[in-house]
Amino acid sequence: MDPHKYRPSSAFNTSFWTTNSGAPVWNNNSSLTVGSRGPILLEDYHLVEKLANFDRERIPERVVHARGASAKGFFEVTHDISQLTCADFLRAPGVQTPVIVRFSTVIHERGSPETLRDPRGFAVKFYTREGNFDLVGNNFPVFFVRDGMKFPDMVHALKPNPKSHIQENWRIVDFFSHHPESLHMFTFLFDDIGIPQDYRHMEGSGVNTYTLINKAGKVHYVKFHWKPTCGVKNLLEEEAIRVGGSNHSHATQDLYDSIAAGNYPEWKLFIQIIDPDHEDKFDFDPLDVTKTWPEDILPLMPVGRLVLNRNIDNFFAENEQLAFCPSIVVPGVFYSDDKLLQTRIFSYSDTQRHRLGPNYLQLPPNAPKCAHHNNHHEGFMNFMHRDEEINYFPSRYDPVRHAERYPIPTAMLTGKREKTIIEKENNFKQPGERYRSWTPDRQERFICRWVDALSDPRMRSAASGFHTGLRPTNLWVRN
Ligand code: HEM
């Protein structure tokens, strides 16, 4: 059986046109009219249905990451990490799990160019035997802000001006100047790697800190990293203008064409781990998403490989209706207290219920490939046919029981309620080290991109409060 197919499509198995309800259509060229010149009769149900379907073809685009490309393949374990996790799909070398992956840009619309300076999404859905695991990452290993409270404002500042619908640097610099923790992310975004050449030649990262738990309940913090086997390649400004000017879908095309030609993109998966008993020994907070974990003291450990060997059959079904949620994990993998991850746990399934409806997990690319069962039923667009009388729990008539217990983190949580910042902010050390590790020409290009952003004429007016009507504030006062 094809593991990617949930149900066979029934849409194309007649040799002639039909209406949606299956009635034969004998003329798909002309509307039903009074005489040859019209008017058109409202009773032309086929025409009305055709137009009504067309009128509703678009669904809301993703509020971020609207522009994306997906492909299918498999993940294969190459190294045994069963001492760290009881995750079934990581149980032994050689185990393969089907996956669907969606790469994306972040800020602009569904049809926007793929050559803009912007982080790239790298979202992997593993269809494991114990349910789906969504590793929803980006191409950079850190993020702009560390508290999800700031995410909507951050996205508003990065998105086009609500008045002109143009992305404007003065709004971006204005917002981030209040957030020194974002500097590290800018050492990636404004670096040469700020515009990946395509989706095949970029790294990926889970970015947030997750937790691995083994059978005995021992917990490790973990970060996930994808490294492309064909290396990392980027576009400098001039090349990006040239590539984007001739094909605004160049990265989608590169992915599609490579797979069609049998040149399958591949990434190696690595992890870094920290024993929570040692989390205080660093000069940064390991759960702070604006920090990397230094590889010299926390080495990359190989885990497996990801191979994309199948193109999607239908962009709408397997890209637009594809839905990822960092909350979707499997036994053996859990969240951490990383504040940004905690916010994401809520936000994604919330947006999917809005964008795709309450039964979005029944859609073929989102549904688990393993058997599943519960009493969450009905609602809009529910197409699960159930022939059951017991839709409550517990029941002496229903043989379904709780699953076997699996370990979850048991660490004691203490503290008083607070709305505050973390203790070890350490905002500048890692960005400074990264900048100093570059060659002078790379530093120069980085500075030029800042000069460009800061040269926005509205920056000067903001400094005096003129035009914008905003009062200049002390940029580094935080609470
Ligand atoms: C609190 C912070 C964040 C919030 C509230 C948030 C929210 C969202 C929302 C609402 C979507 C649209 C989902 C959809 O409609 O399908 C999205 C997409 C996405 N986000 Fe985030 N996000 C946050 C941080 C991050 C971070 C840190 C990463 C990287 C690790 C990330 C990676 C992605 C990716 C890859 C997608 C696209 C998934 C796809 O391909 O369908 N986001 N995010």
TrEMBL record:
Its cofactor is heme. The active site is at H65, N138. SMART domains: Catalase. Coiled coil: none annotated. It is found in: Peroxisome. It catalyses: 2 H2O2 = O2 + 2 H2O. Heme binds at Y348. One of its GO terms (cellular component) is cytoplasm. One of its GO terms (biological process) is hydrogen peroxide catabolic process. Its EC number is 1.11.1.6. Keywords: Heme, Hydrogen peroxide, Iron, Metal-binding, Oxidoreductase, Peroxidase, Peroxisome. It comes from the Eukaryota. It is an enzyme of class 1 (oxidoreductase). It holds the Pfam family Catalase. Catalyzes the degradation of hydrogen peroxide (H(2)O(2)) generated by peroxisomal oxidases to water and oxygen, thereby protecting cells from the toxic effects of hydrogen peroxide. This is catalase. It comes from Eucalyptus grandis (Flooded gum). The lineage of its organism: Eukaryota, Viridiplantae, Streptophyta, Embryophyta, Tracheophyta.
